[in-house]
From TrEMBL:
Family: Belongs to the aspartate/glutamate racemases family.
EC number: 5.1.1.3
The organism of origin for this protein: Aurantiacibacter luteus
Keyword Isomerase listed: yes
Source organism, top-level taxon: Bacteria
Active site residues of this protein: C79 (proton donor/acceptor), C193 (proton donor/acceptor)
Name of the protein this chain belongs to: Glutamate racemase
A single BP term in Gene Ontology: cell wall organization
One GO MF term: glutamate racemase activity
Classification via NCBIfam families: glut_race
UniProt keyword annotations, A-Z: Cell shape, Cell wall biogenesis/degradation, Isomerase, Peptidoglycan synthesis
Positions contributing to substrate binding: D15, S16, Y47, G48, N80, T81, T194, H195
């Protein structure tokens, strides 16, 4: 017999750090009534410089334990690095619906006029076969220039703590795209890491107004809304953020998380 879904069963959004808040913000726009838990594996941050085996083991292990503890109605892996590496494995072991985060190559390919697309991700994401497959399927006949920019992850985390973003870090990421063969023709850039939209203004300024930035957050939120369509929602406790290690800059962060409707902060 199927157990009826509880109205207070949360949507669990998971990332290595604060990048997944860009996905939560889109989820809030279309599902403001949905209880949510935001889970950050701060003990494992950053993922992008780890090996595939390390990332897969962390993500599958943590999501298994988190699913038991929080009984979510749906899990969103709000992290491109974790999704491109561990999505299949997590789907095999968990029974709840899992929504992953896929680099937005398809919409970027539809938008580009020059036929040259840049892709900024973590070092782990840009080398994934998953990205090769997306390129072959959706961007055949276009040029996709990839650059792994792990420094941007830490810059985004620092910005969320209220710290200044080092312009040289942004400049290095932009140069990493522009200085590759054909890079001057890039007119569309895929932000293939959920942390990077947090630096959208800085990246836009450095790339120039003519370049369009594309990320997958709104599409992921629509997918989640589709999967929970018709379900009852009832918030019986404040939404919370859970961290696997004490986050750096705790106090500034608590205020920032409250703006995302995450009123409690706990250790997992
Ligand atoms: N936010 C993550 C992503 O979307 C990864 C950041 C990291 O831990 O390196 O890829």
């Amino acid at each position: 017999m199927e157990i009826p879904l509880r109205g207070d069963a949360p949507i669990l959004l998971f990332d290595s750090g604060l990048g997944g808040l860009t996905v939560l913000a889109e989820v809030r726009k279309i599902l403001p009534q949905a209880p949510a838990i935001y889970a950050a594996d701060t003990a494992g941050l950053p993922y992008g410089t780890k090996t595939e085996a390390e990332i897969a083991a962390r993500v599958a292990g943590l999501l298994g334990r988190m699913s038991e503890r929080y009984a979510p109605r749906l899990v969103c892996i709000a992290c491109n690095t974790a999704s491109t590496i561990a999505l299949g494995m997590v789907r095999d072991v968990l029974e709840v619906p899992i929504v992953g985060t896929v680099p937005a190559i398809k919409p970027a390919a539809a938008m580009t006029r020059t036929g040259t697309i840049g892709l900024l991700g973590t070092a782990a994401t840009v080398r994934q076969r998953y990205v090769d497959d997306l390129e072959a399927e959706f961007a055949a006949g276009k040029r996709l220039i990839r650059y792994g920019a792990p420094e941007l992850v830490l810059a985004a985390e620092a910005k969320m703590r209220g710290e200044r973003v080092e312009p040289a870090i942004i400049a290095r990421a932009v140069a990493g795209l522009r200085e590759q063969p054909g890079g001057e023709a890039i007119d569309t850039v895929v932000l293939a890491c959920t942390h990077f939209p947090l630096l959208g203004e800085e990246l836009q300024a450095a790339l120039g107004e003519q370049v369009r930035l594309v990320d997958g957050a709104a599409g992921i939120a629509r997918r989640i809304a589709h999967l929970v369509d018709g379900q009852a929602f009832q918030r019986s406790a404040p939404d919370r953020a859970v961290f696997t290690a004490e986050p750096v800059g705790h106090d500034a962060l608590v205020a920032r998380l409250a703006r995302h409707g995450l009123e409690k902060v706990e250790r997992f």
